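User: Teach me something about this protein's shape.
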Amino acid sequence: MHAPDKRVTLPGIALLLAGGYFAARALQERRRHHPLDVLTDPVLEHDVHVRVPMAAAVGAVAALAVGGYLFAHQRRQGSGMAKHFVEFVELDVPVSTAYNQWTQFEEFPKFMATVQSVEQVDDTHLHWRALVGGKIKEWDAEITEQIPDQRIAWRSIGGVDNSGVVTFHKINDNRTRVTLQMDYSPQTIAEKAGDVVGAVKLTTKANLQKFKKLVESRGAETGAWRGTVTH
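Assistant: First, the predicted structure itself:
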């Protein structure tokens, strides 16, 4: 196992620099209003004549805190390392209904908030267009395994780096657990910052809840593909 990369990464540097900028602005304001006090007393006292702008002070603390947390997080996780998470939802429908609806990939935008479109190129290839880290991105994905009423696995083959598997578990005749496991590699500063606060995981959790609502409200799937894929 490789040791985690402990270098300071760009998101951490950016946020730390932002904190330093706001701190410097606060110090400049203090000098402007009460220059001698800065030279004689390094500790900020409750002086009614010194009014450091609240926005600058709060900005410094917030930026330094987030930057420090991001740096510590990436020291633990390792820079550029693939991220992994698991989410699940239980639906009050038969397992075949949940599975069949998931095979309707082009309907994903109806319950996936950041997905704009999914084009099914053929039985095993999809073209995605979605909002990732605040920017529209497109990429292709390949279905690597598909077993009716059990699992669908995929991997990207260009663009946004991700892979995963959705599994379908029969709880009883009218209740199904859908579990999504996903690996992804955040690339840009915005994507890495989003990863720190768990944005992808939270979005996925919300998407699964929307999928549950969509399927249960209809009571039946809108289509199905029952073919098998094995590689």
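Now, about its shape. Confidence is low (pLDDT under 50) at residues 1-11, 34-52. The beta strands are 83-91, 115-122, 125-132, 135-147, 151-156, 162-172, 175-184, 229-230. If you'd like, I can walk through any region in more detail.
User: That's plenty for now, thanks!
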